[in-house]
Amino acid sequence: MLTYVLYSGLWGWHCKSSAIEKENCALRCVSAACYEKIYGDDPLEEGEIDFKRGREFQYCVRKESIGESITGKIHVDI
């Protein structure tokens, strides 16, 4: 379903404009709250690979999925 939403343009042209914009849209779709917390002030840019924030995002989504609070600082050692 996510692939259809991204490629159909239902989220607007910016989600189809580049590979990294699709990635940002997909992350927002998985968890808007975690996306805003981890990437909100500094979204991924073309060519950027950010393993640290990627792990923080995954951890945030896991916490959110089991009903734990995602407020406060999320720190994951790599």
TrEMBL record:
Pfam families: DUF4787 (PF16029). It comes from the Eukaryota. This is Uncharacterized protein. It comes from Adiantum capillus-veneris (Maidenhair fern).
